[in-house]
Amino acid sequence: MGKYNLDPKSIPHGEHIPGAVKFKEAGTTKELGIIANLLSLAIFIVLLIISIICTGEYSFSNTIQWMAG
Prior knowledge:
Blueprint: H1 29-55, H2 63-68
């Protein structure tokens, strides 16, 4: 018990429940990369808008301070 012998048939599993919804996941790593990039871009834009509202200016005169956060 607790050791895997690389045989997929030896993995314990139960019967499938009728009407269960399959877990939605990316089909390929390329699709996963695109989803991750879009999500990170959206988070970046939200944080950029918040920082512009808090500072009251949109200036990259002090780039090191912007990169440091």
